[in-house]
């Protein structure tokens, strides 16, 4: 099967983040096994989902992990002009379908290059690391990265995460954390606003504290020009609470997201916020003893990626992609999680993030060709005796 045929098959599995991925998993597993590759699964607790990993080439230190996710985002509410789960060639040089670019395109490139990998005389191994539930918070990658570092006797050195980057190397990614805060106050007639504790009024105070915290980070010149915007951001995206204008709200709730540049610490910001909440609780319990503020995790934190420009993986990715300009992104990806496991990591893959997650998602055919070409160059690098100096 060529890369387009493989992509067509991959797109036909409508596996959304959060759902069982066994259908697409078993198809990929079948392709690998029919080529003689031994596949290892990393299942979730009830066995309804699994990541897979495998090694192609010798069991020696210094290999390269190719990482991608098998799940996609929903199509509900989007106006598609084609069936999102049928890869469609409209004759305009683009292939349309959900996941065509994010990121089944890269998975297709990996599988299309498999025969070349098997034929090559690889001096260093290539690993596939395909995860599930990336689109609902990069949930499976930490366990997958851990499984790779514990399963094999040898130690891989690099991870290339094939998220759509128009084949440009991406070395930085903001850390991301999504939280929910619940405020429990006391209900009453609106005229008694000083005798009760309005959960809405208090929630607004907490929201302003968060905004001020962001402004303080900027004022303190905590800036990293590699990112747009160059500062950590704190954003409140959904607020609810109250029942009527003349009733004091006893409940309020808001969602917030925190996107941190590498020099800022997600935990430290959340801890400082918690400290402020504790102070408010102590003050307001004098008015209403059951007053409380509770902040809970909506998604586990996704760590930042901060690969230095002079890291070996950067020169490797520059060489195989043919692109030398380094970029950063503010979206969530699994690269920071692979880096946390000790693998030098960079993002580089076919397609544009501008086409991801939207109606009529597509990948340009020439991007698929470039994706396969990058992997073929990687095979050449890893077949060369000269590659040894990288490891
Ligand atoms: Zn993705």
Detailed description of the structure:
The protein has helices at residues 3-11, 22-34, 104-112, 114-119, 141-151, 199-219, 266-284, 312-321, 335-340, 365-383; strands at residues 39-43, 50-56, 64-69, 88-89, 94-96, 126-131, 158-161, 170-173, 175-184, 188-189, 233-241, 247-248, 251-260, 292-302, 305-306, 327-329, 344-347, 362-364. By secondary structure, the chain is α+β, with helices and mostly antiparallel strands. Strands 1-2-6-3-7-17 form a 6-stranded mixed β-sheet. Helix 6 packs antiparallel against helix 7. The mean pLDDT is 96. It binds zinc ion (ZN). Zinc ion is lined by residues 69, 102-103, 134, 163. Zinc ion binds at residues 69, 102-103, 134, 163.
List its salient traits.
six-stranded mixed sheet; 391 residues; 31% helix; binds zinc ion; elongated; four-stranded antiparallel sheet; alpha+beta; 10 helices; 24% strand
Summarize this, please?
This protein is an alpha+beta fold and 391 residues long.
Give the arrangement of secondary structure elements.
Layout: H1 3-11, H2 22-34, E1 39-43, E2 50-56, E3 64-69, E4 88-89, E5 94-96, H3 104-112, H4 114-119, E6 126-131, H5 141-151, E7 158-161, E8 170-173, E9 175-184, E10 188-189, H6 199-219, E11 233-241, E12 247-248, E13 251-260, H7 266-284, E14 292-302, E15 305-306, H8 312-321, E16 327-329, H9 335-340, E17 344-347, E18 362-364, H10 365-383
Parallel strand pairs: 3-6, 3-7, 7-17, 8-16
Antiparallel strand pairs: 1-2, 2-6, 4-5, 5-18, 8-15, 9-13, 9-14, 10-12, 11-13
């Amino acid at each position: 099967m060529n890369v387009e045929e493989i992509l067509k098959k991959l797109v036909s599995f409508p596996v959304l983040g959060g759902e069982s991925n066994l259908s697409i998993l078993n198809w990929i597993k079948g392709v690998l096994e029919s080529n003689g590759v031994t596949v290892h699964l990393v299942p979730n607790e009830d066995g309804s989902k699994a990541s897979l990993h495998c090694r192609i080439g010798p069991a020696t230190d210094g290999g390269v992990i190719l990482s991608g996710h098998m799940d996609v985002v929903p199509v509900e509410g989007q106006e598609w002009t084609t069936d999102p789960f049928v890869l469609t060639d409209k004759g305009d040089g683009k292939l349309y379908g959900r996941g065509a670019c994010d990121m089944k395109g890269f998975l297709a490139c990996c599988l299309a290059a498999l025969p070349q990998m098997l034929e090559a005389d690889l001096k260093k191994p290539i690993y596939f690391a395909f995860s599930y539930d990336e689109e609902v918070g990069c949930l499976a990658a930490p366990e997958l990265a851990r499984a790779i570092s514990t399963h094999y006797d040898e130690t891989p050195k690099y991870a290339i995460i094939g998220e759509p980057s128009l084949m440009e190397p991406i070395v930085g990614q903001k850390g991301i954390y999504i939280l929910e805060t619940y405020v429990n106050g006391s209900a009453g007639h609106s005229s008694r606003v000083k005798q009760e504790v309005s959960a809405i009024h208090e929630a607004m105070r907490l929201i302003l504290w968060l905004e001020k915290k962001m402004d303080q980070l900027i004022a303190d010149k905590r800036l990293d020009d590699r990112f747009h915007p160059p500062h950590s951001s704190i954003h409140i995206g959904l607020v609810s609470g109250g029942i009527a204008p003349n009733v004091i709200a006893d409940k309020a709730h808001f969602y917030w997201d925190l996107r941190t540049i590498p020099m800022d610490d997600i935990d430290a910001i959340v801890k400082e916020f918690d400290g402020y909440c504790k102070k408010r609780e102590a003050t307001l319990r004098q008015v209403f003893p059951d007053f409380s503020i509770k902040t809970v995790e909506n998604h586990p934190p996704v760590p930042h990626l901060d690969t230095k420009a002079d890291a070996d993986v950067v020169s490797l990715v520059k060489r195989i992609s043919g692109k030398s300009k380094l970029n950063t992104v503010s979206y969530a990806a699994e690269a920071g999680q692979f880096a946390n496991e000790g693998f030098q990591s960079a993002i580089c893959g076919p397609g544009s993030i501008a086409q991801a997650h939207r109606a009529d998602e597509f990948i340009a055919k020439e991007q698929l060709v470039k994706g396969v070409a990058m992997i073929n160059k990687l095979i050449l690098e890893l077949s060369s005796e000269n590659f040894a100096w990288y490891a």
